[in-house]
Amino acid sequence: MTFRERIRSWQIIRHTKLWFSISLAIILIGIGAMIFNQVTTGLPLNFGIDFRGGTVISLTCEKTPNIATVRDILVKNGYKDAIVQEAKGNKITIKLNAKTISPDDANKIIDEISKEVAPVEKDKTGITSIAPVIGKELIKSGTIALILALLFILFYITVRFTFQFALATVLALLHDILVTLGMLALFRVELNAPFIGAFLTIMTYSVEDSVVVMDRIRENLKFRTKESFPDLVNRSITEVWVRSMNTSITTFLASFSLVLFGGPTLRDFSMTLMFGLLSGTYSSIYIASPLLVLWHRGKDKSGVSKKVATVEPEKRASVVASESGEATLSEGANTVVNQAPKKKKKKKSKKKSKRRR
Q: The whole model's pTM is what?
């Protein structure tokens, strides 16, 4: 038996309680991490300079700088959480969580970089302070973008499929958001402006996987006979399981390689993608489809009974009639075959009337 044939025999819908329990446990762990962070640090998530505010130092060196040495200099000066980004033209961008930095401290850092790393062109040096107000506006804009994306997804899938399909997909997306935020809080991943882009990317992958599953369910519903709805959904999931896993694993490996080799600049963004991809793949198969089965459970029985009644009315009528002993109906028409007893009664009545005469 091949691996694909084994997948066809999997019973995913029957273990709905297990999948829901796993998701609930992960979400509760994430919520617990957020509460712990709120108590210890005052914030549920590890927001970076783009959200909390800070100072940005822009430098231009005369030759290619060594980023690792720049980070060591910042750590010596007490800035362990500083973000160092390298750009074209031998430029360096240093982001410090400190809202304000004294000119003496800034000059000290620049001088050490000029001595130990590469000479700095001081006429191209810039120091910018980011106010917390900008971070609040960024959070507000990101939240609005997220809500609008969910509403547009709900509308599109409702038009493309049905409202039940759309609601299951959106709830799976909310599951992905909670799981991703919980893991980011648990591992204390720093969140900056690219975090919003990573979140929207996660939603794209999750919706794509869910739509693939929903589309296969809809196609199988067109050719459904006596198969129950849970069995049909289970068969649809097993038919697209390999496709979903191949797509998600390929993207996961790319994001995981960025976590390992992308450096601190891309690590936080890549970890957000990695958590979201894992959650999105899981929810599209093990959350969205079981939710659809739960909502369809009551309607499925009536739908199946109506379908059986319309497909085989003659057979059911013949069985009922034969069991009661009243009449026998033909399988192709609803006419009474045997009406001989009534004719005999009429003949007897005629003979009796002749004798009396």
A: 0.71
